[in-house]
Amino acid sequence: MKKGEKLLDVGCGKGLFSKLAMPYFKSVAGIDVSEQALLGLDALGIKTYAVDLDKDLMPLENETFNSLVCLDVIEHVLEPEKFVRECARVLANGGQIIISTPNIRYLKHLLVLGFCGRFPRTSSDISRYDGGHLHYFTISDIEKILLLCGFKIVATNGVIPSPYLAFLRPFKKLWFIKEFFSAGFIIEAVKSGVR
Fold this sequence. Notes:
Layout: E1 4-10, H1 16-21, E2 25-32, H2 35-38, E3 46-50, E4 65-71, H3 80-90, E5 91-102, H4 107-116, H5 139-148, E6 151-159, H6 175-180, E7 184-191
């Protein structure tokens, strides 16, 4: 992520990423559905908004932010394309968006589906069924949504958390590694104009 003026952390939770990003941005704001999670962040200088993104628009002006992160959020919203369009609305032209999500094409997930006959768990959160994930994405799914919403893809990287696959991390940008050996992926895109 580039240093910048204004960052919006969508689905910020208790603000872990927002806190880490504060030294690199003039201002940081966070949005989350949980008012409880947002407690105390305003006192740290992080402007917060409690918003149910399935029901409401972000209470922000158009083109307010230069950078926006959605870390493991898009799989939780009812309408992913509508959600990305709303992110585009609050992001300035030329602004950067970073989206991460689990990868349903991860070989482990494909094996569970193909050989065990059940859908794979893509979340470690056991409080709700599969952590409340509503959608399951491939890299091309998210890239297509971003393109439809007026973004240009800058980079796509695989996320390889498994210590058994650590030797593959230097190759996380390679197509085959991203597609089949990455438990998740991160896409960086730039807003080039909303369609």
